[in-house]
Amino acid sequence: MDRSNIEFSVPVMEVTHLAKQVALADGAAPLHILQDVSFQVGAGESIAIVGASGSGKSTLLGLLAGLDQPSGGSVRIRGTDIFMLDEDERAALRGETIGFVFQSFQLLPALSALENVMLPLELAGAPDAATVSRQWLERVGLSGRLNHYPKHLSGGEQQRVALARAFAPSPALLLADEPTGNLDAATGKAIIDLLFALNVEHGTTLVLVTHDEALAGRCDRQFRMREGRLHEEVPDARSA
Fold first, then answer.
1. What is the DSSP track for 93-123?
2. 163-184 tens-digit pLDDT
3. Region of 164 on the Ramachandran plot (φ > 0 left; ψ -120 to 50 alpha; else beta)
4. What is the pTM of this model?
């Protein structure tokens, strides 16, 4: 992929000294889920966050999206400290700036593929939601499945709908949580090929949480979560 025209130095997300701890009963010391996490992600860059189950990856992703409150630190998206916003303001920022892709697809079962993709556009007041959604479903190879409901789609097709839904509002930042976790190897590879192609084509910044080392290796940078701390891995160490 030719990424030479992307300026990674322009930060879309800046995370500074982020921490999350949970109080325990009976006066026990608090549980530190995240400790002093700091990193930046440039415009159009892709990063992977890897680590064992329970290491804090999902907690971190929830904080990056403003879905949970930290115990300390900040997350700035395009210069805005999201934890200085109230819940409604954070929801508005998510709608304007962030797309999501989940392991479990998170499609609404009562809506067709087309309606699922249209939903975030309609919530944002886009006048051409149906047209844009059709174009995106065509882009992900589902032009013949517009009116099918999730229960009539395969896992790979559902994840393609989820990708179309995530990219349709043209988010600056896309957060993906184990996007191939419920897919077989061949289908998962096709989904990841599509995800990275869309990432490059649209200059969307990608933050990917995964346990798949091969998948993580396709990102521009890798971070490993260990006991609540995030460590960037250098290429020489990864290839050793």
1. HHHHHEEEEETT----TTS-HHHHHHHHHHH
2. 999 999 989 999 999 888 888 8
3. alpha
4. 0.85
